[in-house]
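Problem 12. The chain below contains 164 residues. Write out its predicted structure in token notation.
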Amino acid sequence: MLNLLHGASSRHSEGGFTLVELLVVTLILGILAAAAVPLYLGYVKDAKTAEAKIVAGSVWTSVLNNAMTICGRPSPVSDGFPKAGLSSTGGSTPPRWSVPSGAGTLTVDCISGALTVSESPLFKVVGTGSDVSFVVVQFMYSAADSPPSRLQCSTDGGTSFVDC
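Solution.
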């Protein structure tokens, strides 16, 4: 008889979470999400800026290579586009990045190794894809600075730059 009563009472009890438990879990998840989202967005911005810096490094390497090949004569930035993996107009494939002006030149004195640029910044890498349109990286060169070459990054569309 005791077993019969015990079995009947356990059939009526329902398992589940109380409202307080659900609220506590929701609160904890909200706090974690509030902390994680800004960190994630910062990582995404840093990754996109790093991608632009890679393109700038490729352009610089190819321009320097071309200038060393023709010693003592100005080498246009645009001549380095094909070696950097860009189109003749300075665009990437797929169209995410662009070097809008290839008019700047680099001259290498093959005796002393001195570099001379026609303008500073020598070139800029501009985001053209919808997800990278806020990123601009420019290559600065001045023989008087230490180090003479540096990249400057902007994540506000080119309004303000910082060394990166």
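Discussion. The two ends are 81 Å apart (CA to CA). Students who got a different answer should revisit the alignment rule from Section 12.3.
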